[in-house]
User: Fold these one by one.
Assistant:
Number 1:
Amino acid sequence: MEKAKEEDEPTGTTHANATHANAGIFVRLKSNILNRDSMRDLEGDKMHVLVLFFLYILQGIPLGLIHSVPLVLGKKEVTYKEQAKFSISSYPFSMKLLWAPLVDSLYVARFGRRKSWLVPVQYIIGIMMLVTSQYVGQMLGDPEEGKDPSPPDVTSLTATFFILNFLAATQDVAVDGWALTMLKPKNVGYASTCNSVGQTTGWCLGYILFLTMEGAGLVTLGQFLLFWGIVFLVTTTLIAIFKHEKNTGEVIGGGEDISEEPSLGLVETYRVLWKIMRNPRIPVYSFFLLTHGIGYAAVEAMTSLKLVERGVGSAKGQDCPS
């Protein structure tokens, strides 16, 4: 009996291993089928997804730079009071709801409902980056040849990046709206993926990549702004010339048509927004959004500044405390 039992145990183990292996094969096969189905669904929208992804990357560049400037100012021993002043430049992205109805209701139909805002705004961002690249060194208080170094002009920096952030927020409203008609109705869900991944990628380029290169002495803020200003201008020109914006009600490939968008005037759009705000759940949700950061906001904002103050991330390793 014991010998028979010993002979049965390997058989049971073999069956368990076989079952596990078959389950693994089934999971991999199911995953491959889902991946093929997803790629099949994106037929005709792959280029649109890439365009949206790149537009969201551009949108994240100013956001990343806004977070990197305080660390650059920290190396110049700017007071925390002045750092707090610069934080005002990040407000527009949190307040875009106030002018989003304006972007949605005023447009030139012949040029395109979203392109009417996207193209001019991105041109302004590009031009502003090019102009700022020539003066940002002075605003940061970088020493010039034959002149004594001056303290950073935090007020001018705040105003400059406030405008850049305002323009980036307006671009976000236009791109979000365009995604609804650029993609097929069944693929609209990919717009949020492009938004989150693209904007985060842009933020990393403007924050992590810039600080890494700046700390290594490879690039200055002015040079970084100059490069991305050119990218903005070239990209916007290509979109203005080659990217057609589909009109609502237009039949697209595959027999799918774009659902008709409501064409509301400016006053009507704000009335709809006001009705939404009067929903009983909105004040509760707004209160949560306005207060949820109180517990960690100070730590999140001050940690990087304190690290720079202690020498972490300094271009000179000998400045770090032992």
Note: The first helix runs from residue 2 to 41.
Number 2:
Amino acid sequence: MRATVSQRFLNAAARFVVVANLCYGQSLVARPIGQAPDRVLLKFEPQVLEDEAQNLIVSLGAAETQIIPHIGVRVLKVAPSRLAQVLEALSHNPKVESAEPDVILEPDFTPDDPYFSSQ
């Protein structure tokens, strides 16, 4: 059976990560150093209609500020004092696939590309 383009891409990407890890002797896993105090990353179950999604967001007192279309994630702005309550409510909602705080990651390494700073 022939591999699809996406399967070939994923295989190539996985090989790149392994080779980069071996060459640089570093882990390519970034460590969390904090979280945004007022942002939630939210992904609904595929069958949830847009009206339902918007109604749930409004009912939580949140505002959608961005959508990351390729992965179906919405960025919500919430009052910092309500972050834990909103995450708790979303974690028990059957329409929600995932909800998590917007975590800030520490850079793992700086590329050795001499033109990196000018990109």
Note: The beta strands are 32-44, 63-68, 73-77, 96-105.
Number 3:
Amino acid sequence: MPSGSGSRGARIHTSCAVVSAPTFDRAFARWCLTVECACHPVDRVCAVDRTGNDSGPRVGKNARVSYVVDPRVDTYIEGLPAWQQAVCREVRELVHSADPEVVETIKRSDRPYFTLSGNICALLAAKDHVNVFLYDGGIVPDPDGIITGGHANRTARTVAIRQGEAVNAPALLAMFRQIIADNRAGGWRRIGRKP
């Protein structure tokens, strides 16, 4: 893998990794480390600094989630109105906090997708809301009633978040975790077929 590629999908093995000193990427307001391990020769891992300062990566009790950043997802989010940016960033943080192995990418030319052993969710900003498409095959419970569309859809359902509405973080996080668990168990298509 090329140096500084920020490869999406690589897993870094902490037992054999050698990590460089952190550098601040001002263009994307994030801290980056170059990581080398026996299995993945070079990778660039970036942790977005949502505080707007460049004093270094945050660690400890109030640490932010660290993950490999796809700059194309940054570009998508940065092109949105401020309120939609805030919603997309919060959802991005939630899905990455659901599991450290979540990968972000772009599919369908410009849509942010989050995957782990299959699709977890995708983001799509509309004129007056942000859609979070949940790829759960309609089998993940929704006890908090956050699903707003696609109730009968057998592939994905939607959580629409409008301007001024709060993201129901606990409910969405629980759904992300269940989708990831289902993906690891073979995906909703396989699970949904069981009697």
Note: The two ends are 43 Å apart (CA to CA).
